Amino acid sequence: MLQQLLNWRTGLAAIAICIVTGTIFYSQYLARKIAGEERVKVEQWVEAGKSLLNPNISDTRLPFKIISDNHDIPIIETDEHDSIIAYVNLDSAKVLAEPAYLAKKLSSLKSLNQPIIYTDPLDSTRVNRYYFGHTSLLNEVRYYPLVQLLIVGLFIIVTVLALRSSYQSVQNQVWAGMAKETAHQLGTPVSSLEGWVEVMREQPGNEAIVAELAKDVNRLRLVSDRFGKIGSTPQLEKIDLVAQVNNMVEYIRKRAPGKVVFSVNTHGHEQIPALVSAPLFDWVIENLLKNALDAMEGKGSIQVNIQEEKQDIIIDVTDTGKGIASQHINNVFKPGFTTKKRGWGLGLSLSKRIISQYHKGEIFVKQSEPGKGTTFRIILKKA
Asked: Fewest beta carbons within 10 Å, which of 33, 63, 128, 289?
């Protein structure tokens, strides 16, 4: 699915580039063609104006037609000193209301095109310059690629977001389905084991064995219950996070090497209530503590810091392990990502789902430095 998403992105990008590139080149070709035709029209307009001043021309219909047909190209005529003599196709109201309007417009036209220069054949010192602008058609042709680029860009963004949302939805359904199937498959053998434990409990001399077996069976039942809650809406209850975290730390401490030091800092709070699903919240803390143990390779310290603020409860799990390389930090919560030789890379992915979707909180890597350790932060809303 990920490869399909990447192929879609690449294909869309290639199509968009081809469309925009082709449009830009073609629009520039049209713009140059229209600009050339406009210059020819202005040249004809200038010649027609001069023809009307020639007393030897008896038929003035063509010059008049050429002049009257120009109703969209703005033109400003100047003398040899570049002083404005006349203008056409400009806003007369602005000319009267704004004294500087013509000067600003002349400056603008100078930046657009080279002027058409007419020298009086009878007096070479008399030179007229005709500065002209563009028609609305040429402006539309030039700005069209930008509009199209914006439309294509929005199309790509919407499509990629839709594909990404679809991919995440399918991915979530796969993991949720796998978790539920795991819980279903565990249910029957766990129930059978619970029955056998009760049978052994009734036989004298099995007390020690039964006690240990009961612990393991209860653990399997807890795991089954956790997986069964993935994909469904869990029941949130008001519990004491201090006690909940201490219980999980104590559970992991008994199974950790003796050279690993555990500590829980609550900043003087004996109780911190929060609305959570106890089995799923324990799963998150267990995953973080186990990852910390794996990162330390048998020695170091793990500190859990619980701090209550005005609106939130912040839980930091800090270890002194090998840390996470900067290029991997953005990937640690992705399903299937793992730096371990053994493991499926599901623990942190499920932890993020539990905190983000079920508890409406946040979980992220607060900081990590190779060789010095990592801090994971959980933010929950106060009860």
From this structure: 33
Q: Which long-range contacts (CB under 8 A, 24 or more apart) does 234-238 make?
A: 234/277, 234/279, 234/280, 234/358, 235/277, 236/275, 236/276, 236/277, 236/358, 236/359, 237/275, 237/276, 237/277, 237/278, 238/273, 238/274, 238/275, 238/383
Q: What DSSP letter does each residue of 44-106 carry, written as one string? A: HHHHHHHHHT-TT----HHHHHHHHH--SS-EEEE-TT--EEEEESS-HHHHHH-TTHHHHHH
User: Where do runs of H (alpha helix) occur along the chain?
Assistant: 2-52, 61-69, 92-97, 101-112, 136-201, 207-229, 241-254, 278-296, 347-353
SS3 204: coil
The Cα–Cα gap between 142 and 137 comes to: 9
Count Cβ atoms below 10 Å from residue 367 Cβ, excluding itself.
Answer: 15
**DSSP at 323:** -
Q: Closest by alpha carbon to 217, among 195, 184, 200?
A: 195
pTM for this model (two decimals): 0.54
Residue labelled with tokens 């690629």: 145
- Residues paired with 318 in a beta bridge: 303, 375
Mapped onto helix, strand or coil, the DSSP state of residue 230 is: coil
Among all chains, which residue has been given the structure tokens 């500590």?
A: 263
Question: Is the CB of residue 349 less than 8 Å from the CB of residue 175?
Answer: yes
pLDDT tens digits in sequence order for the chain, 383 residues long: 445 545 666 776 777 778 778 877 888 888 888 888 888 988 888 888 888 777 777 777 887 888 888 888 899 899 888 888 888 888 888 888 888 888 899 898 988 888 989 887 777 778 889 999 888 888 777 777 777 778 777 877 887 787 777 776 676 666 667 767 776 677 778 788 888 888 888 888 888 888 888 888 887 887 777 777 666 677 889 999 999 999 999 989 988 888 899 999 998 888 999 999 888 899 899 999 999 998 887 889 999 999 998 889 999 999 999 988 888 888 888 766 666 655 556 778 888 988 998 899 999 999 998 889 999 999 998 87
What tokens does 2 get?
Answer: 């990920």
The conformation of residue 358, written as its DSSP 8-state character, comes to I
